[in-house]
Amino acid sequence: MNTLKSIKSTILALTLMLSNVIDLQAENYPYRGDFLWVTNPSHSNWLYDVGEKATVEIQLYKYGVIVDGVELNYEIAPDMLIAVSKGKTVVKNGKAVINVGTRKMPGFQDLRMTATIDGIVTKHHVKVGFGVEKIQPYTKEPKDFKQFWDETLKQYEKPVVVSRELAREYCTDKIDCWLVKLKTDKEHYVYGYLSMPKDNEGRRLPAVMCPPGAGVKTIKEPLRHKYYAENGFIRFEVEIHGMNPTWSEQDFKDIQSAFSSKDNGYLTNGIDSRERYYMRHVYGGMYAVMRYLQSLPEWDGRNLAIQGGSQGGALALITAALCPDITLCVANHPALTDMAAYAEEGRTGGYPNWKEDFFNEQIINTLAYYDVVNFCRYVKCPVRMTWGYNDSTCSPTTSYAAWNTLQCEKHSFITPINEHWTSETMERQHMEWIKERLK
Questions:
Q1: What is residue 254's predicted lDDT score, i.e. its pLDDT?
Q2: Is 391 a catalytic residue?
Q3: How far is residue 272 from each of residues 146, 237, 290, 337, 369, measured CA to CA in Å?
């Protein structure tokens, strides 16, 4: 009987591993890795009440064969913070059970594990949540928050198209694609790839904008979401730094080296002033992009959606708050959420994950005008939000801080095992969610 159970467990594990390789490029585990960790929290949804104890059952496979007798070293830490306890256990009869304990306050505990097998170190972690529906942000809304942004947006109402050129390399037999250079204010530009169905024949179409993830980089794979245009949407994939995606790789590297350093990264540039902070023109620029989409003769005049992940998820929620004409919003694991929470000892903050010694009163004050949670209160359109519990870039703690702050119609799609990624299947489901709700 035990042998039969072991075979079933192995088949299940291999099926999971194969599914990840095919659909997710094995982002949960090293691609073509020798080891597979299978973790089962004692609650199937990975969630507990505050004060309730959690345990996690662990199985470890090498080449699909369950490992027995190996020693596991582990530590338990509050989400994204240093460990509060450490221990060891041994895999016996194909499994080990670790007591994760509990939390006195709402949040997540992270069980971090290491094993050495045949001289090779393999690691894994799993996060479980406690009282997550009660997680509230550290960040407070400034009294003049709305006034500040109402004044800021006045200069972003009328973006100017500098150029719009057919990007033949991204056109297909079904869609046309253009590279657009857009002047968003007196000093700043953004580039974007605009796609829509070929031979549109005068149809008016819903529009979807996709802001970028973090970094100083070009637009990622312009055709990765071509199925939007193939399904009758206008799709606009944009960047935020005014970097022409047709530049050479060396040009990008030169700019990245000058503007991605710890001391001069764009997310810290001007952070001592709410007026001079770099992200002010980024947020305003996203508002200008939506105004541009509304000016297109192909737009249907009704349906205006925004969809993005990580920094793009943050910009999706922020822009939905700034632009009340947006009708639908999709945000994956939003960054820039409750960023200053690290300033309080023992609290988990959001990406860029600055630690406690980074903050002072002025920085905390500036960030309050740019934090996702303060924009969430002003989002009126329906929101679909996705996140995973194992994310160590944009923590589940801050995703819940945003989720619990939203006061609009909202739909969650939670995938506990996910780290900082979404599958292609999930991405297509976002489009279907938008498509089902078109007016």
A1: 82
A2: yes
A3: 20, 30, 28, 18, 12
Residue by residue, what is the 3-state secondary structure of 82-139? CCCEEEEEECECCEEEEEEECCCCCEEEEEEEEEEECCEEEEEEEEEEECHHHCCCCC
Catalytic residue among 241, 281, 333, 420: 420
Q: For residue 192, what is the enclosing H or E element? A: strand 189-197
Q: Is the pLDDT of residue 173 over 80?
A: yes
Catalytic residue among 79, 110, 176, 310: 310
pLDDT at 218: 84
Told to judge if 420 belongs to the known catalytic residues of this protein, a careful annotator would answer: yes
Judge if pTM exceeds 0.85: yes
Q: How far apart are the first and last CA of the chain?
A: 56
Among 82-86, 354-358, 374-378, name the one with the lowest average pLDDT: 354-358
Q: Of the residues 79, 110, 176, 391, which is catalytic?
A: 391
Instruction: Extract the runs of DSSP E, i.e. beta strands, from 223-290.
Output: 234-238
* Mean pLDDT, rounded, of the chain: 92
Going by pLDDT thresholds of 50, 70 and 90, the confidence category of residue 23 is very low
Of 149, 117, 134, 116, residue with least CA distance to 50: 134
Is residue 240 packed enough to be buried (19+ CB in 10 Å), middle (13-18) or exposed (0-12)?
buried
Q: Do residues 400 and 132 touch, judged by C-beta distance below 8 A?
A: yes
310 catalytic residue (yes or no): yes
User: Which three-class secondary structure state does DSSP give residue 330?
Assistant: strand
